[in-house]
What does this fold into?
Amino acid sequence: MASLILASNRLPIQLLKDGTIKRTTGGLSSALEGAGIGEQYTWVGWGGPCPSAGRSEEDLKTSLRSLGVEPILLSEDEIAGYYDGYANSTLWPLLHYMQERSRFDARWMPFYQQVNEKFATAISEIADEGAQVWIHDYHLMLLPQLLRKKRPDLKIGFFLHTPFPSSEIFRALPERDALLNGLLGCDLIGFHTYSYLRHFISSLIRILGVEADIDGLWHQNRHIQLGVYPIGHNRDGFQKAATTNTFLQQHSAHAKHLGSGKMILSVERLDYTKGVPEKLQAIRTFLESHPEMRGLVHFVLVAVPSRRGVEEYEALTERVQCEVGAINGTFGDVGHSPVQFLHRSFPVEELAALYALADVCMVTPIVDGMNLVAKEFIDCKYPSHRARPGVLILSEFAGAAHEMSHAILVNPHDTAGVAQAIHTALDMDEPQMWKRIHAMQRRLELNDAGAWAKRFLADLSSATSLSHCPQHA
Ligand code: G6P
It folds into this structure.
């Protein structure tokens, strides 16, 4: 039994083909690791599309439970309909304003509903009386209400890691009423920014006719609190990584390789919301207009493979590989390719070494709920980490832009503007770079992953459990 339960689609583990289980480091798992909320919680989620290596379901569950996680096992059909389908082909693009990519297939919602039910059943079986349940992200928007029906005693919180789009976009969803009603099963609903919260409130009134203000609403004789909780990065994780041997080795090797050259880094999941083709266009424009820089700059693109079961992602990978080849063919020379495309994930120690050395970090998503790379880069810029100063180029459409005004803010669609920002960043003098870095670091220190999680959980625990509206009493 558990008094605190986290529920997310993805567990912070990976089942490897040989049957062993490994911890993973996604945005959420590192945030919660940094939160320091100890081991007194159970994490309910899906282990990912990995084979169970011949293990029985029970055996698999037992070994996962020993890691403090309660696995939700999904069938092939559920993976296709719920994860690849409704979550990642309907909701993900729509929540990121990409209506033209959002596919409405009536066969998917029943699987989304079914998997949300599975979560509700699993949680209701392990939750202590009055336990807190913190639900994460767009995969589980029906879960709060399903759980509330089974266990009215629970304190239920939901945090959306993506943007909540304008109601004009959200109302295009055929299942919009069901999703909003699902969320109204919560005691607390949190977003990264005030804009997302305002959009949610507009959707409630326009779609359900339910009125709310920025603090919350009354619905069916229950109070639902609303709030803004911009997620922070895992500060401790990065500070520790910067003291390891791997970090030092990687740092020396890259520094030697760079020599007097300049590193322009980007790190992201290879996702169409991240604006990689648009960034490559800007890189091409920059190299065209600054021939003197061609042999000096190293664009290092770390692109972590993602959601390979979804067609759009396969097409994007091919498109990006093709454009990288074309840029290198045009602007490269014997012994130097301006763009290094690294299509894999990197351990945190290696990422920290890249962040510490990079002269510029380009975080230029088309739309992004928050973006932790921007925060991680700035927080690796300490002289004690042998860091070079660096400049952050940040899309104004990332949630992080609300907090990081000392970055060079860009519109990722404006190719010439982004190319100009690269030039401005490379031209900036060191005192100016440090001034901007310090201003951003001061803010990051106050709101790291731990602070974010503590704030949300404190609000969840104090969320009123009045069962009727005082005005109507
Ligand atoms: C985004 C979502 C997360 C998700 C992550 C990785 O950050 O907000 O919920 O876990 O992408 O995507 P994946 O489909 O691999 O879990």
Summary: The pocket of 6-O-phosphono-alpha-D-glucopyranose is lined by residues 10, 26-27, 137, 161-162, 306-307 (CB under 6 Å). DSSP finds 17 helices and 16 strands in the chain. The radius of gyration is 23 Å. Residues 64 and 167 are 40 Å apart (CA to CA).
